[in-house]
Design a protein that fits this description.
With 131 residues, the chain is mostly helical. Helices cover 54% and strands 8% of the residues. It has five helices and two strands, in the order βααβααα. It has a two-stranded antiparallel ribbon with strand order 1-2. α1 packs antiparallel against α2 (35-52). The chain is extended and about 60 Å long.
Length: 131
């Protein structure tokens, strides 16, 4: 499931300017500017121009679930499925973080039920602590 959140234009312009300044500072601190740092300046400048023309920043997230059938060697099959997902994500340069202790919430958020993960508070004692 792909999740996204658009920033308001005022925050987008502020972040674009921060990114531009951060890239410029990185280059100024290096004795010899690297191709990577110069590329970052170019990207940050293009981002600042785009946001100045009305573009907004969009943050993307992804929820990935793995399901295996019950039965013999269930744990081994789950481990193998998890490794396969992690390897595929690594090949696609996607940073995945396991959802320890909140698998039920992560799974529910990946279903097309309209659950807003940003405003979700779990029920029970933990939910009362967080709200």
């Amino acid at each position: 499931t792909v999740l996204y959140r658009m920033l308001p234009p005022d925050k987008t312009m502020f972040m674009a300017e921060q990114n531009r300044q951060k890239a410029a500072n990185q280059v100024s601190q290096e004795k010899r500017a690297t191709v990577r740092s110069m590329s970052q300046i170019g990207k940050a400048n293009r981002q600042a121009v785009a946001t100045n023309q009305g573009a907004v920043m969009v943050f993307f997230g992804m929820l990935v679930t793995v399901t295996v059938s019950r039965g013999e060697q269930e744990n081994q099959r789950l481990e193998a499925a998890s490794r396969a997902v992690e390897q595929a994500a690594g090949g696609a340069k996607i940073d995945l973080r396991p959802c320890y202790g909140a698998q039920d919430t992560g799974f529910a958020a990946s279903l097309p039920l309209g659950l807003n993960v940003r405003s979700y508070t779990p029920a029970g004692p933990l939910g009362r602590l967080l709200s």
